[in-house]
Amino acid sequence: MDVNKNFLVGVFEDEDVLLAAVKKVRSGGVKIHEVYSPFPVHGLDEALGYKRTRLPIAAFLFGLTGTTLALTMQIWMLGYDWPMIIGGKNFVSLPPFIPVTFEMTVLLSALGMVATFMIVSDMKPYGSPRQFDLRSTEDKHVMAIDTDANGGKSKDEISRLLKEAGASEVNTKSFE
Where is the signal peptide (predicted)? Predict the structure, then answer.
């Protein structure tokens, strides 16, 4: 998020009203910066026009990396670096490798997805989050509209559109 941004913030009481408001505001030609909700609202992604996420592809690639690393590590350690024949099995026997391979796959998938989510969401451990309305974490739904990105519409027009769409209140928020 850039510095010196000015936003109009619409506060909504109900998720059904919010969903209808998103459709109405977008059909009115207003670009919505983001919608914040204390719980998931079914259909909000489609209403905002978001594309399907590619995070499952990243999860698969992290899991594939974990599987490859686990098998490579075990085959190298037990097959070439320190070969042991245990129970008459060959030096590279895959069935005993399955538990470690599974655990390494799950570990790298989980850690990779946490890191990917934090990078994509711009969540830095040294920064503080910008909140448009503190009540968005409790019981209110908040729609943030960047007034600079909607150059053709005035603040009064956007405020009126938000009120008509069902916003219980419309506030101005600036970040510097």
Answer: none
